[in-house]
Amino acid sequence: MENSVYVREGSQGLGIGRALLGALVDAARAAGHHSMIAGIESGNAPSVRLHRRFGFTEVGTVPEAGLKFGRWFDLTLMRLALEG
Ligand SMILES: CC(C)(COP(=O)(O)OP(=O)(O)OC[C@H]1O[C@@H](n2cnc3c(N)ncnc32)[C@H](O)[C@@H]1OP(=O)(O)O)[C@@H](O)C(=O)NCCC(=O)NCCS
Fold first, then answer.
1. Dihedral, CA of residue 12, residue 5, residue 17 and residue 49, to nearest 10
2. Which of ligand 1's atoms lies nearest the C-alpha of 16?
3. Structural domains in the chain?
4. Residue nearest to atom 12 of ligand 1 (CA)
């Protein structure tokens, strides 16, 4: 399963992302899922940091995965084992 967390501009940096991701991880564990994957634009330091805090580790990078604002962005894949 894959997560996606978005906090409205102006409300970021207040702990909302941490609360949302924590609730998602808890719910995924309770539902018996094996692992959770996050696909994060590689330069998105707040999101990489948020996921690391919950124990996600980087498992790969897709180079030039998407074109945004006229330039190519890499995608960092992070994974959290939910069992064991
Ligand atoms: C990434 C996002 C979900 C984080 O949610 P948030 O509510 O802003 O973050 P929180 O306040 O819960 O903080 C979570 C961690 O990110 C860090 N962080 C938050 N804003 C940051 C910033 N501007 N620069 C660096 N680190 C930042 C915090 O320090 C915290 O790490 P810590 O617990 O080790 O101190 C949110 O900023 C967001 O929606 N960004 C735009 C959309 C996006 O990138 N979504 C994720 C797609 S994968």
1. -90
2. 7
3. 16-81 (3.40.630.30)
4. 15
